[in-house]
TrEMBL record:
Family the entry assigns: Belongs to the type III pantothenate kinase family.
Pathway membership, UniProt: Cofactor biosynthesis; coenzyme A biosynthesis; CoA from (R)-pantothenate: step 1/5
Top-level EC class: transferase
Protein name: Type III pantothenate kinase
HAMAP family reported for this sequence: Pantothen_kinase_3
Residues the record lists as binding K(+): 124
Keywords: ATP-binding, Coenzyme A biosynthesis, Cytoplasm, Kinase, Metal-binding, Nucleotide-binding, Potassium, Transferase
Quaternary assembly: Homodimer.
Active site per the UniProt annotation: 103
Database matches in InterPro entries: ATPase_NBD (IPR043129), Type_III_PanK (IPR004619)
Amino acid sequence: MVLLVDAGNSRLKWSELDAAGRPSIQQAAAYGDRPALAAFLDLLDAYPNVGHITLVHVLTHLFAESVQAACEQRGVHLHSVRSVAQAYGITNGYQNPMALGADRFVGLVAAHRLANGQASIVIDCGTAITVDAVERQGQHLGGLILPGLRLSADALIARAQGKLSFSLEQPTIFADSTSNAIGGGCLFGLVGAIEGICTRMQQNMSSPVVRVLTGGDAEYLNAWLPGDYCVQPDLLMHGLAYITEQTLCTSC
């Protein structure tokens, strides 16, 4: 059995890879108050027959070392994906290629394949929002990072020493309470930022451009975004599936 695993800042996500190389429906578990390593160990216990794991993560070296040790102890082959200068059809646009988050690199791989020869913009809507541009030949042009929806609201509330709250239940541009004003302000500010960034990027890219929206808040934000976006909540699983296919074929 092959597992595809994405260890993010707040959740562990995974899929099984079937015999045809297709990922199953993505599953997820929030860390809550537990460390990410505990969630990963629970995953190993839940899949005693797993033989190979392709992992992408944005966590610490200690997490990586602990995961490697746990897999070795169980006889599981682990492939941890890292950002490199060029691989899987993508040419990394960062000055220091390894400084690009591995999750962003996997997203670029998946979006480039999804775009099928067209340029693409990948918007990953998680704890932070990342926006990356890829030309049709696979050249990564670079990207931007901004606070995610809840992180923006939490930061504003923290500056007020916790005296405020926010609500996203019924967002409106004409909020009639402070909690709705904070929630709506963060939402519409982020929507405007995403749309504006994508528009500016497209002015300097080949046409047409496929806008790919992924991450935990992708579907929620898509309902408020005015442009045309391709929503792929499990985008990274498709990227990990392709990387696994290439890795296992190379090792054959």
